[in-house]
Specification:
- This protein is of the alpha+beta class.
- The protein has four domains: 156 residues, Beta Polymerase, domain 2 (2-Layer Sandwich), CATH 3.30.460; 82 residues, Hydrophobic Seed Protein (Orthogonal Bundle), CATH 1.10.110; 131 residues, cca-adding enzyme, domain 2, CATH 1.10.3090; 47 residues, no CATH class.
- The protein contains 22 helices and twelve strands.
- The strands form three sheets. An eight-stranded mixed β-sheet has the order 1-10-9-2-3-6-5-4. A two-stranded antiparallel sheet has the order 7-8. A two-stranded parallel sheet has the order 11-12.
- It starts with a strand and ends in a 7-residue tail after the last helix.
- The relative contact order is 0.06.
- The structure holds adenosine-5'-triphosphate (ATP).
- Adenosine-5'-triphosphate binds next to helix 8.
Length: 437
Amino acid sequence: NAKKRQIENILYQRLDNRIKQLLQNIGKTGNELGFNMFVVGGFVRDLLLSRQIDDIDIVVEGDGIEFAKTYAKKEGCRINTYKKFGTAVIIYPDNFKIDVASARLEYYKTPAALPIVEKSSIKLDLARRDFTINTLAISLNPDNFGTMIDYFGANRDLKDKTIRTIHNLSFVEDPTRIFRAIKFSNRFGFKIGKVTSNLIKNAITIDCFKNLSGLRVLSELKQIFEEENPIPAIKTMESYGLEKVLHKDLTLIPNTYQLLESVNKILSWHDLLYMDEPYPRWAVYFMAMLNRCSYKVCEQICTRLNVPLRERGILLEKRYKAEKQLNLIESSSTYTKQELYWTLINFKTEYILYMMALVKDEEIKKAISNFYTHQRGIKPYIKGRDLLKLGLQPGPVFSAIIKQVLNAKLDGQLKTRKEEIQFAAAYAEKTNLLIKS
Ligand code: ATP
């Protein structure tokens, strides 16, 4: 039987008013429809671990779509529904989202028949999850609001700080859970239970990844690389030999780890300063991991993981371009501020950060950092229409002049708009660009 515990107090203490109100409204609306309502999974786990809560996952013992429609109407939300799965997403006008699923049991009357979908209990829904710590549910109906349901020993494992599967075939059933175990263990500082760890080793021994779609592995890898510090997780992956799942010739040497550490430092620096400038964080770690591989091995890894074309570009061609440019910068003793600007302006954040992690010369590192924090934001005040006013004829010459203005600006020569116009006029005069009327 489920262990029940009232955690209403925790709900009241740790959640902000909006979420509290929302959970109560969900419970009420579901109750009116005759459904049992639960908030489940990561939400409850993170609540008990006092971590920030991102998603709300609701499970309905009943018709989740009917619930979502009724609730959205009441609250003025939009919904997306997925009939086939009995799931819905409720979207508030400010884009806040609630995921809704129907607890249900699917079975086949005869092998060839369509599945018969029955509404079933929350227990079966929770039993399908990856780890015990993700199997908690809290009742939301008014009569038992705040009752926590723990069928699989989740509270014990949260207390023991341990990742455990629910059953022994878990990793064979879905090998991506191996990556998920490592992700959660790294994120929460939990150990992987002994039995669970052995199950991972067994699953790898029997080559469980053989038939697994590369995209699913890629998605889990990306999630690991998006963690605040993925390096311990990468070490754990290596301890299980998981890098060989990506490629038999992929080896992580001390240099790779040094580079990963330096990526971690640069990204922490960046993210603190530019919190609201998103970039594919995962890609920088991935680039670092591939740094020592041959082009052929990188290509084969991308193929194995079904990396989509655009992302393949990041990991292969554009990464090589960034490495090549950095080599050029490092091997030249005469690289000017302006040259650095015109080189780096072609690279997005992820490559600049990668180059900063890779660069050996401290002076160049400072220069790249200066580019990122100052130079990249410098824009000339003058526009094409200012040049028209000077009597210049529109054409490629406009961008040539603007480029010169920008160069002078980067050099600290020009401060005001007026100075820029004077500079442009003088430059045009000097280079005979003025139309003599
Ligand atoms: P995160 O904070 O990383 O989003 P989460 O626990 O919310 O963690 P999701 O990946 O959003 O994780 O998954 C939502 C829920 O679905 C989890 O609580 C988990 O139990 C379940 N789940 C996700 N992937 C699997 C899987 N491969 N096998 C079984 N259950 C899964």
